[in-house]
# Entry
Amino acid sequence: MPVRDAVVLLSGGLDSTTTLAVAQASGFIVYALSFRYGQRHDAELASAVHVARAMGVLEHAIIDIDLRRFGGSALTDEIAVPKDRDVNEMATGIPVTYVPARNTVFLSFALAWAETLGADDIFIGVNALDYSGYPDCRPEYLRAYEAMANLATKAGVEDGRQLKIQAPLMRMTKAEIIRKGTGLGVDYALTSSCYDPGVAGRPCLECDSCRLRAKGFAGAGLPDPLLAKFGIHPV
Amino acid sequence: MPVRDAVVLLSGGLDSTTTLAVAQASGFIVYALSFRYGQRHDAELASAVHVARAMGVLEHAIIDIDLRRFGGSALTDEIAVPKDRDVNEMATGIPVTYVPARNTVFLSFALAWAETLGADDIFIGVNALDYSGYPDCRPEYLRAYEAMANLATKAGVEDGRQLKIQAPLMRMTKAEIIRKGTGLGVDYALTSSCYDPGVAGRPCLECDSCRLRAKGFAGAGLPDPLLAKFGIHPV
# Structure
């Protein structure tokens, strides 16, 4: 396998952690990139730090950006996170947890770093199946971003290289993602998915993200090690 | 003329200030957006504050982002700013003052703000004629960005609106830009162009940006009021 550098967007959640494992299994040396963006669930960032350390990334950068300055989301504002929605109802419409242009902002920093490193690959853990209805998680969005990125940068324009936005989980169900990551040795007890966690990152089990996670582990026929960590017995 | 909101990227330089004037003359209520991104020329940001105040924008947001974290440019690193280059030689190749993915990062924050405001228009003062060879200043780049933005956002996807990246200076020479702005009442003494300014923002007169500015004023047949402000007599 070729040894190449890649920038991996790492939130500390289940999807981005699995994506990191996939990038490493494909032979990439990983530069992990996380953001402190005014998210209410800071536990996620603590998970990102633990995951990056446990999985031996070459470098982990945490960038401070203030998306709260612009408001507009339950994840950064004082809007209530919706609870106890049925997982089959989530994909209708764009929910209040959508952060305006978040993936575009994140990918743009990843692009800046990739260009400085001379890396051609950026990995992002988005998923079009078991997702929450965000427009910037769709394959047509990522293709448009990639086309733009190749026109934006010195790498794409002058050096004749091709920047690739890699989203290996795009067409996988949550259950398939969990099986894939488990096969690659991912320790999901280190990850954090909850939009509204309690003390020490204890998952609320009621937000969209907790419910998608529970459905995923159930579908994979595997126990969620995060629940065991908090002494929670699944229903 | 319709009254609509627009986000205008404002560096405090000659081009972005003229762009702001064009947006206002087109009937837009302006939200100005500037960045503290580790640039060595902090004088530019001071100019942005003066320009925004003098031109009566509705709101001026200054976002802190640390592009120095990734390095790779004479504008943010300890790489020397090139001096005394002939203006006709500048457009060959991408110079060391190029900041990786800078416009992509800036536009992405503008997109986040536009989405929160419900604004459909983002103005950027890029220019493909008298420019410095940056890949992210070309019309094909902006078209690709616009296509991506319309797939990225709630506005583009759900509300049936069309986000537009407006670059009114794209095909103007520096002299035409200066004549246009002067006709709209822009006070260019408030603006700052130098990549390597001295005390109180005194222009070095030797970097690419100072030389392009001098060529522009000469071509417009107008004196640069910034020189008078510093008691500099043009050669």
Notes: The longest helix of chain A spans residues 102-117. The domain at 4-229 of chain A is CATH 3.40.50.620 (Rossmann fold). The radius of gyration of chain A is 17 Å.
